[in-house]
Specification:
The structure is a homodimer.
Chain A (H helix, E strand, L loop, with lengths): L10 H9 L14 H7 L6 E7 L8 H14 E9 L9 H14 L15 H10 L3 E8 L7 H10 L1 H10 L3 H21 L10 E7 L13
Parallel strand pairs in A: 1-2
Antiparallel strand pairs in A: 2-4, 3-4
Helix pairs in contact in A: 2-3, 4-6, 4-8
């Protein structure tokens, strides 16, 4: 069973909206592992743009992110990335930052993890990975999400869930390491109180970037930030 | 060589101030490991109050904190604790919270560590440890430190130091775990930018508590919060 949540729209709703629009007939939706999909295509298959929209934290390791960027760089002219920035411009979004770091601190000990935060990477780290495969940042900017974007609340709820505490005790054996993850969880709880409860939690800023190989360094038309 | 820093006063300045006061003749300063000191005293030696002032994070393990609380509970009538709360009531103190959690996430992998954050524990966690040895919380409250308390800045500086990044690469072998500590460090850097730089960083709130064994549950006279 798969539960599809999303706010203000789910992924399915967004796809249906796009497919019903005037470009709908030109869109094909493919649900697949990105690296396997690219490898299954002939090397001659080139694409204008690859968009990595809030998906990088789902990758199972930093190495897999680098491998995907490397293969993408040979097949697409431009890679557009939107990912949580680990940066908040408001006090009540800092709870979201703490919550994802806390999840990441626990989940990095779980091989084959299925959570929302499997490999947490900052914009700085993604740029370092991109540089490793020769990609250049053409443009980058930050967006503060609207109040309808509820990811901040969801990630905080995941940490406050009783099951999360159980998993800390189950997965972290070393006393010192367990102490750190517990302290992080308690810091999320304290932050939640300080901002005035779950309904006050906002989502952290989003980092957006356009990457190309140097030979593709043409002017990129995107909105001013 | 020992470098003694502190703001607005160093430990040495505070001790000199107390010793020169009207109670000075009744004060003896002893610099010793708390557990070893207590063990060196006869069991009949009792004390009115033990004050643990911002020292718990220097303990080398959660087990040592519990052992110290256990022995203290048999020798003193009242244990007073002041410790960083991992909670900030202002946006520009959340950088301090992130910085100490980041240090803790790295330092828990270093046996014999000499940093300021050796065993990070929240008020919730300290209360759980106290309960394990039968201690009861008589009273607890939070204090927001004045601007002259610079610990927030110092801990952020420690994370931003080049040496800190070198130690991440040296100490954390697993790629996933390294990714988490690097992300935390980058989150500190992003928070530092958001609050407007180092001079704007404030120190997180301090948690104060009075603990006794149940038989000592007499009214405690401390200022109202």
């Amino acid at each position: 069973m798969a539960v599809c949540i999303g706010s203000p729209y789910t992924l399915g709703q967004s796809q249906a909206h796009l497919s019903s629009g005037r470009l709908g007939e030109r869109i094909t939706w493919t649900q697949a592992d990105p690296l396997k999909f690219l490898e299954s295509q002939p090397e001659s298959a080139k694409y204008d743009v690859a968009v990595l929209a809030h998906c990088i934290w789902y990758f199972s390791s930093p190495e897999l992110i680098i491998a995907t960027l490397r293969l993408l760089s040979t097949r697409v002219h431009r890679i557009c990335i939107a990912e949580w920035s680990l940066s908040s411009s408001a006090f009540n979004a800092s709870t979201h930052v703490l919550a994802v770091l806390t999840q990441a601190a626990l989940e990095c000990r779980r091989p084959g993890v299925q959570s929302n935060v499997r490999t947490v990477v900052s914009p700085t780290s993604i740029k370092a990975m991109a540089a490793k495969v020769g990609l250049v940042v053409q443009r980058e900017y930050f967006i503060t999400p609207g109040e309808g974007v509820l990811d901040g609340r969801w990630e905080v709820m995941a940490v406050m869930d009783r099951e999360f505490s159980d998993r800390i005790n189950e997965l972290v054996e070393d006393g010192g390491e367990k102490s750190v993850v517990l302290a992080m969880k308690d810091a999320v709880e304290a932050s939640l109180k300080q901002v005035g409860g779950l309904t006050e939690v906002r989502s952290m800023d989003v980092w957006c970037a356009v990457l190309t190989l140097p030979k593709e360094a043409f002017p990129v038309l995107i909105p001013n930030d």
